[in-house]
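Cross-posted from the bioinformatics board.
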Amino acid sequence: MQPVLNIEDVRQVEQSLTLEGVSLAELMRRAGHAVAQEVLASRPQRVAILCGTGNNGGDGWVAAERLHEAGVAVQVVAPQDPQDLKSSLALMVAKSAVAAGVSYTVAPSTDELAALLSSSDVVVDALLGTGFHGAPAAPFDLWIQEVNRTSATVVAVDVPSGLSAQTGHAPGQAVYADTTVTMISLKPGLISGRGRDLCGSIVLAPLASQTDRLVVEADPVAWRCDAQDYLEVLPCDTQDIDKYSRGSVLVVAGSLRFPGAAIMAAQAAARAGAGYVTLVVPDRVATVCRTHLLEIPVVGMPSTPEGQFSVEGKAQIVSMAEKASAVLCGPGMGVSADTVAVTSALLECSRPLVLDADALNALGRMTTNRLDNFPELIRREAPLVLTPHRRELGRIAGTPNDPPDSLTAALEAARRVVWADGGTDICVVAKGEATGCVGVEIALLPKPGPAALATAGSGDVLAGTMAATLARGLESNELLPLLCAYACEVHGLAGTLAAENCGSRGVMASDVIACLGLASDAMEESVSMAVSGAAQEGDAAHPQVSGR
Ligand SMILES: NC(=O)C1=CN([C@@H]2O[C@H](COP(=O)(O)OP(=O)(O)OC[C@H]3O[C@@H](n4cnc5c(N)ncnc54)[C@H](O)[C@@H]3O)[C@@H](O)[C@H]2O)[C@@H](O)CC1
Ligand SMILES: [K+]
């Protein structure tokens, strides 16, 4: 797992490193060298380095001097004469680079800049780093446009200029990098929001041997999962199974208006590996569901005149829920006093439960949008997984009119709910372009799926996948966030496979469902390969360790 630190915590680590004897000047030297090393890997002849006025620019000047020493033709581009730099660190390294013979251009015209960039093999973007806020001001906005027009390889220092490394927002021009060399630790904005498009591949430069320890001590806001992390939640590899040992799922979903959501959630649960799936719907839509679901029994329950669940069916739904390995409630269900009652009754049942879509809206209704003020509602022995998208998250976490607009805001909102509960029984899967699986002790970031998943019904498919994964059982509730992250990755991978079959813009939720089985197999294989790869690396390292 890779830790992700908020910007203020990265600064804290930087301070701790200085207290442990690694000065800021030394950190900047190492940062610049890490960038130079990355640039040298592509064996360039001509490199342009755009340096801003803060310490991000300082890293750029260090890289320039290093590349110059290595015999590369380097040209620094700066908005002001290096003598006028206000940051004492940046001033020091810029003077050193100039004294070493690095050539530079101050405030070139757009045409001059374009000519310089087009004659460069690599462009290093050291304009704006973690000190950036707002939108890039002139001349950086124009410079960034020119960088994005060049065919040269673009290496960003710490963060692509124009991107907030904290929020992932980029309200103005922002650099599209091929590679981002980021210092100390991953930051949330690099792996969420616009960061996912802007960063290219991310290379981490820890800068000091103490960094790993200090980053963990700084309490990462989240951890990005690697394939081998999922070993603990892989399904058992055995032939000795029947349909019940793979777990049964009860899906409580649908309404006259949205029967499709229920159909897709049930199909997804079956494709994601549940041995037995039963769909419970309001009786007015039972027939349409049956015509779509040949293998899945559909049970009709009393319905209201609007075609939603009626409270009359509540006791029967709960009694069916008690027999399932896991229950999913919510997709397409609608929100009314009756569906609120059904949701609330299911919370009291003793089986693992996934609440999605309208079940979350029902929770919002029950708690006047402050689920965190009603922890007794969600405190239970069996696992509870809530799968809100950001608007739904706002409705349960106290900000219905101002939903979380970034990964970190979503993690914070999810934590309000999870910490109010306080136990390991709950996980909030805060869905977005980057999804966080937030438990009471840890927030995990599964590898995000492709943009093709932004299609109607995709949430129903994830909910069904989640329920099927939960139905396999869990050795300990502490593994709940990991299990949820695993389900998210299976869903994401199914999206990738569906995009290969149908084209990135042609994917419909049913295509994702069709790929869930293959995606599960591929996930298991990639986890096994990652684990055996790590074991081999361990073996290779072993003689050195024992030979000390
Ligand atoms: N955190 C760390 O441990 C380390 C950080 N280092 C570098 O230091 C950087 C942070 O340095 P700073 O805090 O000096 O900040 P930056 O260099 O990121 O930016 C500060 C400068 O940008 C200007 N600026 C801010 N918003 C702007 C906008 N919208 N338009 C135009 N100009 C704008 C400010 O006026 C200031 O001059 C990191 O990104 C990294 O590259 C490294 O040198 C070494 C280690
Ligand atoms: K930058």
